[in-house]
């Protein structure tokens, strides 16, 4: 609930402001849709709220247009109502509109036809302009989300899930209780399979961060750092597959080899835990990369392992470590060298930085710290 307080306060303030502005207009009774439009526009994930406001406006315009044209051709009645509603939804879909556009188009047509002379549609358009306009001021100026912050938050959620899965894997490998081991193994597999939802959310955030950096007035000019961090975040897809493979191969080894693997898998999990705490800090990435040769040293010489299942698990560990370094920004050639020769020093490039935070964004951070 604490994480939701700030977005809820923003929506409340936007609704109140939109309602107050709409009430100042003459000949516009009951401007209830202005605050509704403001709340609906902001009622989505960070990075998509401005687009949501534009979608709402598009739907309202299509709906009112369909309703007005229907009233010009036909008098009011059930046939006009049905035709206007269908035409509005069909028009919204023809424009490639998502569900919010279709819903707003339908409601705009319904209100236009249901109210005599189409006056309700005009009032609804004014309300939509006011509510969406207030929402755009909030999203583009006052409370524009920082693109890198969006990415890092999504990265942390993904890395936390991977670390949790590998910790459960290490617990399953370390215990001698067959029932407890099987339970931990099943939970670990489910945790890592659930990564698909977090990775999907990360993919949406990557797109949203680019949109914010390109179109937000507060963060315009910060596109390059966001693009660089997107490239790093893309490696988490491969890391998720690698972690799942490691869990499956480690759990398939002989019971006599599991305790040794449990320690190594636990070390890998701790690397992910550290990354999840601050994925955007160069010092954190460098510290994780510096510990990779130590994990490789504990892994031993893979070529000398005769057991195929254990050798496969060891290869899976190396793959996970390689993907961790790629996410940290290490060059592909340096990653291959570390995995092959276990070099002690590999420098991580500086993490992308957004630069000097604009004044309005600084105000947003100050306000967030107070609530």
Describe the structure.
- The protein has helices at 2-23, 33-42, 49-73, 78-94, 99-114, 119-142, 147-174, 178-193, 195-215, 223-251, 255-277, 282-299, 308-327, 332-341, 359-370.
- The protein has two domains: 2-142; 147-341.
- With 371 residues, it is mostly helical.
- Helix 3 (49-73) runs antiparallel to helix 6 (119-142), helix 7 runs antiparallel to helix 9 (195-215) and helix 11 (255-277) runs parallel beside helix 13 (308-327).
- The number of distinct structural domains comes to 2
State the helical fraction: over 70%
- Beta-strand portion reads under 5%
Question: Based on DSSP secondary structure assignment, what is the total number of beta strands?
Answer: 0
Helix count, DSSP H or I runs of 4 or more residues: 15
SS class: mainly alpha
What's this model, at a glance?
The chain folds into 2 domains: 2-142; 147-341. The protein is mainly α and 371 residues long. It is elongated.
Features:
2 domains; 15 helices; 371 residues; 78% helix; single chain; elongated; mainly alpha
Strand and helix layout:
Blueprint lengths: L1 H22 L9 H10 L6 H25 L4 H17 L4 H16 L4 H24 L4 H28 L3 H16 L1 H21 L7 H29 L3 H23 L4 H18 L8 H20 L4 H10 L17 H12 L1
Helix pairs in contact: 1-2, 1-6, 2-3, 2-6, 3-4, 3-5, 3-6, 4-5, 5-6, 7-8, 7-9, 7-10, 7-11, 8-10, 9-10, 10-13, 11-12, 11-13, 12-13, 13-14
């Amino acid at each position: 609930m604490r994480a939701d307080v700030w977005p809820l306060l923003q929506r409340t303030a936007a609704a109140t402001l939109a309602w107050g502005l709409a009430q100042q207009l003459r000949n516009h009774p009951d401007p209830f849709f202005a605050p509704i439009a403001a709340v609906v526009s902001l009622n989505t994930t960070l990075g998509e709220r401005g687009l949501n406001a534009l979608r709402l406006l598009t739907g309202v315009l299509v709906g009112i247009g369909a309703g007005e044209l229907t009233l010009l051709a036909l008098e009011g009645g059930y046939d006009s109502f049905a035709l206007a509603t269908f035409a509005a939804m069909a028009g919204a879909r023809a424009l490639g509109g998502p569900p919010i556009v279709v819903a707003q188009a339908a409601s705009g047509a319904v209100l236009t036809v249901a109210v005599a002379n189409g006056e309700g549609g005009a009032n609804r358009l004014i309300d939509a302009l006011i509510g969406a306009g207030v929402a755009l001021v909030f999203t583009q100026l006052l409370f524009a989300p920082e693109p890198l912050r969006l990415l890092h938050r999504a990265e942390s959620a993904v890395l936390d899930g991977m670390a949790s899965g590998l910790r459960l894997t290490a617990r399953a490998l370390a215990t001698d209780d067959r029932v407890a081991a099987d339970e931990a193994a099943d939970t670990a597999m489910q945790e890592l399979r659930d990564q698909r939802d977090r990775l999907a959310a990360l993919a949406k955030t990557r797109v949203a961060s680019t949109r914010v950096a390109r179109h937000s007035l507060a963060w315009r000019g910060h596109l390059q750092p966001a693009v660089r961090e997107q490239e790093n975040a893309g490696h988490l897809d491969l890391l998720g597959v690698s972690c799942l493979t490691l869990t499956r191969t480690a759990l398939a080894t002989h019971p006599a080899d599991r305790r040794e693997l449990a320690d190594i898998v636990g070390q890998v999990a701790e690397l992910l835990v550290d990354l999840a705490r601050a994925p955007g800090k160069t010092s954190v990435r460098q510290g994780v990369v510096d510990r990779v040769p130590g994990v490789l040293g504990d892994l031993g010489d893979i070529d000398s392992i005769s057991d195929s299942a254990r050798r496969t698990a060891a290869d899976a560990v190396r793959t996970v470590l390689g993907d961790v370094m790629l996410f940290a920004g290490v060059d592909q050639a340096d990653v291959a060298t570390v995995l092959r020769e276990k070099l002690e020093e590999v420098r991580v490039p500086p993490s992308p930085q957004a630069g000097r935070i604009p004044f309005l964004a600084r105000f947003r951070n100050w306000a967030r710290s107070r609530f």
